From TrEMBL:
Family: Belongs to the NipSnap family.
PANTHER family: NIPSNAP-RELATED, PROTEIN NIPSNAP HOMOLOG 3B
Cellular component per GO, a single term: mitochondrion
Domain NIPSNAP: 13-111, 122-221
Cross-referenced SUPFAM superfamilies: Dimeric alpha+beta barrel
Swiss-Prot/TrEMBL GO biological process terms: mitophagy
Protein name per the record: NPS3A protein
Pfam families attached to this UniProt entry: NIPSNAP (PF07978)
Primary gene name: Nipsnap3a
Organism, scientific name: Asarcornis scutulata
Domain of life, per lineage: Eukaryota
Length: 223
């Protein structure tokens, strides 16, 4: 009831969310920026962020894999990488309170985007949709996303639909020049009849929504 159309290839994205001990957040970010080149030597990092608003002491990172065999090979190599295990994993584990991961696919009508320039902030929006998958709510959801894109105030980075994890979940990543630019754009969007109509249609299938404002770490490919 939850799976649906996706890109016509085996590529998927692993979304990893870490809750960091409050007293260890600075140490954890320093470890990431110093040693994450050891991790990205094995597979492609899409982005790595810390959460500024909507949650506290949380880090989110997204990895791209060709297929599940690719991920299995990468995980095996990481387990045998003494530098990675010793320099990052061992000290990082003392900083982490909880880990969570999901497997998600890009929806078929979305390509992974990039911001128009470095800097700015990312908004991570998680929609929990009613059971039934994109066959039920896909068209209405796409229309709501496109209505926001057409306002021009925000840049779409990606729309991901979960395959493993909490099902019927959609994660949408947006980029904005600044929190204030985003706030002004949202205010205008709420007065746009096209956005209001699209959202009103889509919200019929929505159970909950959670927004986070995120800042990329220095080593994140998405800056």
């Amino acid at each position: 009831l939850a799976t649906g159309p996706r890109q016509n290839n085996g590529i998927f994205y692993e979304i990893r969310t870490y809750d960091i001990k409050p007293s260890k957040m600075k140490e954890f970010v320093e470890l990431v920026n110093k040693y994450f080149h050891l991790r990205t030597a094995h597979s492609e990092l899409v982005g790595f962020w810390t959460v500024e608003l909507g949650a506290m002491n949380k880090a989110v990172h997204v990895w791209k894999y060709d297929n599940f065999a690719h991920r299995a090979a990468v995980r095996k190599a990481l387990a045998n990488d003494k530098d990675w295990q010793g320099k990052f994993i061992s000290p990082a584990l003392t900083c982490i309170e909880k880990q969570h991961n999901e497997v998600a696919y890009l929806v078929p009508w979305c390509q992974l985007g990039k911001p128009s320039k470095e800097g700015g902030v990312y908004e991570w929006v998680t929609f929990q949709m009613k059971p039934g998958g994109p066959a039920l709510w896909g068209e209405s959801f796409q229309a709501a996303i496109n209505a926001h894109i057409n306002t021009g105030y925000t840049k779409l980075i990606g729309v991901f639909h979960t395959e493993y994890g909490l099902l019927n979940t959609v994660h949408v990543i947006w980029w904005n020049e600044s929190p204030d630019h985003r706030a002004a754009g949202r205010h205008s969007a709420h007065e746009d009849a096209r956005v209001v109509a699209a959202v009103r249609d889509s919200v019929r299938f929505l159970e909950s929504q959670h927004n986070m404002l995120m800042i990329p770490v220095a080593c994140s490919p998405l800056k």
